[in-house]
Design goal:
Length: about 120
Amino acid sequence: MAKRTGKAKSRDSLGGLVEFAHTVNDALEALTGKTVPAWFEEFRQRPRELPPGDQYLPGQSVMPLADAYAVMGLSQTASIDQVKERYRVLARLFHPDLLGGSKEAMVLLNNANDQIKKEKGEG
C-alpha cells in the first residue's frame, strides 16, 4: 500500500469539509426552507418589525428561535449541555482563525447560541 502524501490528506480533509458544508446547507434548507447564503442575507438585514417589548440594538440581529436551533442542528428539546457541546464542535469548524472558517459563520453560530441560552435561562 502506497504512503499518502500530506497533500492527498489535505485534499481528503478539505473534501470532507466541503461535503459537511453541503450537508449543513441541505439540512438548514429542509428545516427552514432557506439555503445558508439566503439565511446569511436575511440575517444581515435589520428586522422591519419587532414584537412589543423587544428592542433592536445597532449591530445586533434578532434570530427566530427555530432558526437558532436549525443553525446548531439541534431539536428544540435539546438540553443546555447538548447545546454547549454542539457549540464547541461547530466553533472548532467555523472559527475564522481556522482553515475553512469564516467570520460570518461564527457570528451566526454565536447569535444562535446566545438565543438558545437566553431561552433556556442560561444567558
